[in-house]
Amino acid sequence: MKPESLPRAARLLRGAEFSAVLSSGQKQANRHFRIFTASTDVPPGNCPGEARLGLAIAKKVARRAVDRNRLRRLARESFRHHRARLQPGGYVVMANPAAVEADNPTLIRALDQLWQRFEI
Q1: How many CB atoms lie within 10 A of CB 37?
Q2: Does a structural domain hold residue 105?
Q3: What range defines the domain where residue 46 resides?
Q4: Which of 31, 34, 97, 116 sits 20 to 30 Å CA-CA off 58?
């Protein structure tokens, strides 16, 4: 499998995994996104010692499905590129209302800036 791929095991899938990351209280944010992190996989995931991604793009933030899907797609792609350099643990990406109006290059830069804060 290519290093840029995102296997199912590298995603947060269960509600308990999302809750563990969101309750950790560790987050980084900018105008467009918030990224919550937990330094360890609690509960343990399928890929211990690796970065795992969860996406929580709310309908309240992005009303149209096309907007939510675009934000998810950009977040996944950005995570794929940074995944090998990230600290092990869970990451949950949430969008802010400003993200819906921004263009793709702006959103990619915003995500890249946030991921760099978590790199080893």
Answers
A1: 20
A2: yes
A3: 8-118
A4: 116
Strand-strand pairing, 33-38 and 89-95 = antiparallel
User: Within a domain: residue 2?
Assistant: no
Question: Are residues 89 and 54 in contact, defined by beta-carbon separation less than 8 angstroms?
Answer: no
pLDDT score of 2: 59
| pLDDT tens, residue by residue, 18-63 | 999 999 878 999 999 999 999 764 444 445 578 999 999 999 999 9
Q: Could you tell me the CATH number of the domain that includes residue 31? A: 3.30.230.10
Distance CA 94, CA 96 (A): 7
Angle (deg, nearest 10), helices 65-82 and 104-118: 40
CA distances from 29 to 33, 48, 66 (A): 6, 25, 23
What's the rounded Cα separation, in Å, for the pair 50 and 11? Answer: 10
Tell me which of 73 and 45 has the higher pLDDT.
73
Report CA 1 to chain centroid distance, whole Å.
21
On the CB side of 49, CA atoms within 13 Å amount to: 0
Look at residue 40 and tell me if it is in a domain. Answer: yes
